[in-house]
Fold this sequence. Notes:
By secondary structure, the chain is α/β, with parallel strands linked by helices. 39% of the residues lie in helices and 13% in strands.
Amino acid sequence: MVSVRDICDAFFNLEEKYDLNYQQIQGCYAWQLIRMHLYYDITRKTQLFGAPQQKSLSLFDKVNSFIPFFKNSLMHNPFSGKYTKDILIFDHPRKVIFDGEYCDIYSNFLVDLLKDDYSFEVLESPYLNKHLTKKQDYIKYTDRIDLGSYIHKKFNKIEFTQKEKELISTVQSELENTFDIKLNILWMLTTHILNFQYDFKKYVQLFKKRKPKMIFVVVSYENLAIVAAAKSLGIEVIELQHGTITDYHLGYSYPLKTRLNGEIPYFPDKILTFGDYWINEDTCPISMDNIISIGFSYFESQSKDYIGTKSSDNQVLFISQGVIGKYLSSIASEFAKFQNDFKIIYKLHPGEYMTWRENYPDLVEASKRDNFEVIDNSEIPLYELMSQSNIQVGAFSTAIYEGLMFNCKTFIVDVPGIEYLDDLIEKGYVFKIEDVEDLTDNIDDFKPTVYDKNFFFKSLDKQLLKSVIDNG
């Protein structure tokens, strides 16, 4: 069976063989534009991961949201007004309720710090075609650029040179032969290059107008035109960590053997991390001096009421994810049949809330048991569930690391993607299990290696953050 490691190694080898990270196609570093998307395409076609269970937008939803796109393009146009801003923040499109309001949990702490003493603006993109945050003077929407990019893509095409076609064909053939699948890299490149060309031009125009000294971005690999436009103008780009970073996360992992010509073109100048744990200098394409651990304010704030509370000695928390939900729900259901002494909580990912009854029949059956509860809403905080549980079972969600902060004895199911947690397994912080029998045999005997919790999520260092801003 194909593994995450297999796919990543294939990418790394191709990048070294054909110098892909530094090959320009149609005037841009096109491999960077599709690297993550091609990875996802291969994981899907090799059936490495199941499909995410999140409900997709209906045609009615898409049509109905098109009018707000036009309205937002006019009312919250980032190009409107003649003013400058020292700092621009491109936040995460997915918002959650925090202190009674929707916000981006990864950049909210930064906004709070900047409000009184700095000149800044937040550029917000829609999530599932909606904006949920409270309207503020400092928030503009990217709908104008997103809409223009969509139209540009519909009415333009790309004529690849013969040399470009040959390179694309060669790379595609090698990947198809390696994984016995069919790919359409030419189509993927066309789509992303057209998007990039339009977005890059518009962001250069925006940055010249606003004249920022630095730009913060969440998920840089999904915002390459922003990074590229800023770097072309000599503007510092700083990424805010939003999730797990490992040697097998292709948004961040560039082994030394692929760095033949220096830095990766569309990579941020600095990354601000949750703690010291997250970046490996052997695979990160920027200097470790530019990886700065400042903490995770959201975790710190939300967990403070639960950290240190006494957990139940017999509560097991299963943490689901859409791509592995069918397998994990089967293990949880089977475990419940023979473990009447345990209270079992199965916490669904928000993307699974609407569809789990159709997709997870084992879970529906298990939920009828007295010792089994399915959580399909966000009313009970995840951190409260972690504080009440002495054991957690999951795959490769960032929540696994958060559970470790609550002293949860942690079991990782051996499913595709387990490579992300190789380091935790090797150090004995967590225990890898193959199946229900493996979990049952080790649930009492496994004794985790002692670890420094601040290594994963430290308290927010405001002075350090201010120094990054002031000295940038």
